[in-house]
Amino acid sequence: MNIMHFRQCSNCKKMAKYLTREQLISLLRIGKPVEQWLNHEDKGEYTILKWLRIDKEKDSTYSVAYCESFDEGNENFLYIYEFSLLNPDEPYGFIDTFDSLEKVLDFSTRNYNASEEKFVSAGMIQDEYRVYLEGRK
After folding, report:
1. What is the rounded CA–CA span in Å between residue 67 and residue 53?
2. How many CB atoms lie within 10 A of CB 34?
3. What distance in Å separates the CA atoms of residue 128 and residue 44, rounded to the nearest whole number?
4. 46 pLDDT more than 90
5. Half-sphere CA count of 98, side-chain side, radius 13 A
6. Count of domains observed in the chain
7. pTM
8. Residue 120 belongs to what domain range?
9. Which end of the chain is less crowded, N or C, counting CB atoms within 10 A of the terminal residue's CB?
10. In Å, what is the CA distance from 65 to each residue of 5, 43, 51, 76?
11. What pLDDT was estimated at residue 137?
């Protein structure tokens, strides 16, 4: 079963693999995490990368982890999870937990400006980072 749906990335030439709403909800309900590249922020001497991850917890609640890290990668080093976090006291990001899927998605879109149309399966965030790097050239 192919769980990915291809959509044209609005600000790049490459195709990015985004989940449909149905796939997003199905994956989360069965306990598969999803992630979303949010944006970056240039601070002059350094750049901050922003993304989030949603997980279904063992107690059937849903958590959203908001992460900010320094951009320490390049075309040969895309593993965003290894980058130094802006706040090392929050090694898993800033986490909020909700009792329903609808609430976690609503919180993510309202508080972090996430889009339900731009989630990827966990582990695919590196591809989003690669697209970001290619767009900077």
Report:
1. 8
2. 24
3. 22
4. yes
5. 16
6. 1
7. 0.85
8. 5-136
9. N
10. 24, 23, 8, 26
11. 75
